Amino acid sequence: MSQALAESPEGARVLVVEDEADIRRFVRLALVMQGHEVIEASNVERALIEAGLHRPDLVVLDLGLPDGDGVRFITAFRTWSSSPVLVLSARSAEADKVRALDAGADDYLVKPFGAAELLARARAHLRRRRRHAGGDEAVLQFGDVVMDRAQRRVTRAGAVVHLTPMEYGLLLALTSHPDRVITHRHLLQELWGPSHVAHAHYVRVHMGNLRKKIEVDPSRPRWLLTETGVGYRFVSAGT
């Protein structure tokens, strides 16, 4: 990890993989204005070389590249790096999002996108990487909720929240990967096993019950957000 990242989510080393020069320039300028160092690549093979040489703190990746699908980069990159991968793609179909996320991407932003949203997501993932580099803390607080992972105990405004084993497992899975989209398939496999990966309604039911116990307004969740058709995300900003 770069020394700058250890001090702050700003000044990170970012690999931008995009074959369209105008988009690559736009992304580079936005990141440089935030103080990041940017390395560029326009295809899968070059991206893998640059990733190996520079060990980026964050990868911003297009999927439609001249020499293959960006998912091929994600699969290879994940064999040796846990740095977050933010996908930028014109592909908006749920199947494409799920495939990239299941391969190991952390987030998915559909083109066209604004610089403000791109930078906000980059900051969130860099914060998560910095937090994990320092080790996961046993006690997590967000809003008036305190989660003590060592004691498997959750309180809200000082009162104990009684969660079922599945509700606690769901909360643990999401909070263990803050700001990252976790797919239905991943949650089902982790909590129910591989024979239940097609039963997305299991997750929806337990998530609805969990939100009633955790969120101030379950119909407008602040912490446990839905990525429609894909999965869920625990938002750590402001914790």
Automatic annotation (TrEMBL):
Keyword DNA-binding attached: yes
Keywords: DNA-binding, Phosphoprotein
Domain Response regulatory: 13-126
Annotated OmpR/PhoB-type domain residues: 137-236
Residue ranges that the Swiss-Prot or TrEMBL entry lists as coiled coil: none
InterPro entries on file: CheY-like_superfamily (IPR011006), OmpR/PhoB-type_DNA-bd (IPR001867), Sig_transdc_resp-reg_receiver (IPR001789), WalR-like (IPR039420), WH-like_DNA-bd_sf (IPR036388)
SMART domains: REC, Trans_reg_C
Sites bearing 4-aspartylphosphate, chain numbering: 62
Superkingdom of source: Bacteria
Metal-binding keyword on record: no
DNA-binding region: 137-236
CDD domains (alphabetical): REC_OmpR_KdpE-like, trans_reg_C
Protein name: Response regulator
Origin species: Hydrogenophaga defluvii
